[in-house]
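Progress note, sequence design subtask.
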């Protein structure tokens, strides 16, 4: 028996392990959970900390093995001491427990390997996430910078587009006005052609009448001459008859005289000569004959209104301060404040003007937030020399002729407008130069805008263009909210007192920008 027990010791070792398998499985499960917790916690720490926790786990398993071996041996001894019939079921159970333990051990090892691989994968993913976070931050910074750049470019583009739209509207309005002027000119030329055709028809009919009169005169001339010869023959017979009655005794009989050409000495009947004088000889019509025909126009002469010579202001004094714009700088601007305090349905603007350039610049510009061309006397170098655009509420305007102002002398200019029937008048040196109607009929110029002299505003109070600047001098400028009558315009042009009702004068000039100079002259001829 002792030999048998010693031979079964090797077989008892698995049985002892099977006997202690549930305990080891429980310990292994506890260690598996602790190991899993350790591995999971290592995902948040460093690899050195993970290795430290794995070392602790090994030491705990070794101490558990030293405790399990004596228990296993003690169980084996008890089995040997017990009856033999009870040992086989026990060994079978222990074997099954051992197999279960091995399977559990394999599962635990597989699970631990999977956890370790997940730990390595999570560590790599964490590093990749950190790299992606840095890259995303760099991309976000670049996107923000590009967005700021694009927004700045868009702002500049919007500003350029607004300016381009305003200029295109101005160009369109000018093109419309030029089209209207061309159509009006074509209509005027067609009317002139019709009048010329009527004149030619009248002249041709008159020429036909003259030719008919000449033909009639040519036919009547031989008849008159034959009648004169017959009258001469009758006079000769009468003389012979008178002589026969006075002489005594018989006289030889005479044959009746044959009609023939009268002798030069024979008298001619007076009525024949009168008839010859009454028949007019063909000659050219007098020079003033065309002026009496319908549709004909007299050529302009020295007294015609078309060729009126510009009047000189002479000694005009007491006109107030003088503003001098020396060059075309965009900084040369004068602000009139407080502007228009109420809406205007009528307007009169008068001023003494002397230009020092080959074209007229902008005399006056009134802009609001709604429209930068509410009221403009606009001139620029691209217009016809001496012309200016009278704008009320862009794009409507009228082109005014101011060619006399290009001689470098002082001239008095008055521009008058009323919303009643849209009538307007232009006076230069007391003379009415241009007039019209249907210009902004029923319109009202709104208050609250910016009113400047010498520059054209593309926005309220700014965005000037040197090609539209005024170069020269202004004096005695005044604005009324009513229509001035011709007598008041004449008084202004001769240096008399201002008419009542002015709303703005050069005394309201609150800002002189750039190189604009202000001078006080007793008379215009003494101004610089």
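Output:
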């Amino acid at each position: 028996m002792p030999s048998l027990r010693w031979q079964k010791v090797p077989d008892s070792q698995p049985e002892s392990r099977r006997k202690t398998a549930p305990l080891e499985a429980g310990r292994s499960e506890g260690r598996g959970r602790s190991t899993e917790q350790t591995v999971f916690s290592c995902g948040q720490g460093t690899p050195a900390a993970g290795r430290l926790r794995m070392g602790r786990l090994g030491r705990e398993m070794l101490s558990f093995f030293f405790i399990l071996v004596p228990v296993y041996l003690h169980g084996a001894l008890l089995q040997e001491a017990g009856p033999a019939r009870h040992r086989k079921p026990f060994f079978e159970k222990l074997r099954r427990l051992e197999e279960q333990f091995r399977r559990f051990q394999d599962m635990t090892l597989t699970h631990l390997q999977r956890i370790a691989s997940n730990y390595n994968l999570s560590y790599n993913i964490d590093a990749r996430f950190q790299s992606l976070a840095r890259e995303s931050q760099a991309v976000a910074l670049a996107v923000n910078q590009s967005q700021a750049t694009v927004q700045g470019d868009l702002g500049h583009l919007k500003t350029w587009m607004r300016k381009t739209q305003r200029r295109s509207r101005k160009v369109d309005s000018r093109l419309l006005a030029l089209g209207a002027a061309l159509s009006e000119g074509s209509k005027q030329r067609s009317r002139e052609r019709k009048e010329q055709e009527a004149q030619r028809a009248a002249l041709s009919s008159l020429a036909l009448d003259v030719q008919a009169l000449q033909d009639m005169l040519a036919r009547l001339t031989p008849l008159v001459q034959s009648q004169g010869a017959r009258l001469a023959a009758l006079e000769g017979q009468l003389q012979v008859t008178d002589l026969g009655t006075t002489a005594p005794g018989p006289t030889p009989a005479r044959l009746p005289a044959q009609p023939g050409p009268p002798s030069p000495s024979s008298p001619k009947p007076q009525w024949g000569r009168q008839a010859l004088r009454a028949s007019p000889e063909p000659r050219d019509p007098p020079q003033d004959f065309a002026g009496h025909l319908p549709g004909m126009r007299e050529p302009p002469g020295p007294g015609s209104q078309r060729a009126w010579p510009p009047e000189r202001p002479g000694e005009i004094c007491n006109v107030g301060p003088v503003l001098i714009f020396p060059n075309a700088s965009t900084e040369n601007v004068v602000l009139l404040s407080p502007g228009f305090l109420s809406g205007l349905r009528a307007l009169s603007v008068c001023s003494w003007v002397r230009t020092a350039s080959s074209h007229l610049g902008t005399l006056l510009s009134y802009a609001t937030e709604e429209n930068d061309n509410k009221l403009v006397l606009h001139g620029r170098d691209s217009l016809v020399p001496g012309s200016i655009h009278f704008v009320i509420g862009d794009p409507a305007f009228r082109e005014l002729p101011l060619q006399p102002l290009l001689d470098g002398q002082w001239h008095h200019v008055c521009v008058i407008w009323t919303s009643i029937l849209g009538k307007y008048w232009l006076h230069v040196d007391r003379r009415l130069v241009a007039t019209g109607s249907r210009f902004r009929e029923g319109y009202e110029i709104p208050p609250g805008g910016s009113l400047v002299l010498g520059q054209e505003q593309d926005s309220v109070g700014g965005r000037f263009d040197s090609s539209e600047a005024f170069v020269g001098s202004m004096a005695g400028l005044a604005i009324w909210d009513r229509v001035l009558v011709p007598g008041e315009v004449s008084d202004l042009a001769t240096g008399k007192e201002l008419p009542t009702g002015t709303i703005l004068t050069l005394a309201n000039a609150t800002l002189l920008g750039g190189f604009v100079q202000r001078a006080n002259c007793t008379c215009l001829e003494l101004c610089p």
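Confidence is low (pLDDT under 50) at residues 1-45, 246-313. Work on this subtask will continue into the next period as scheduled.
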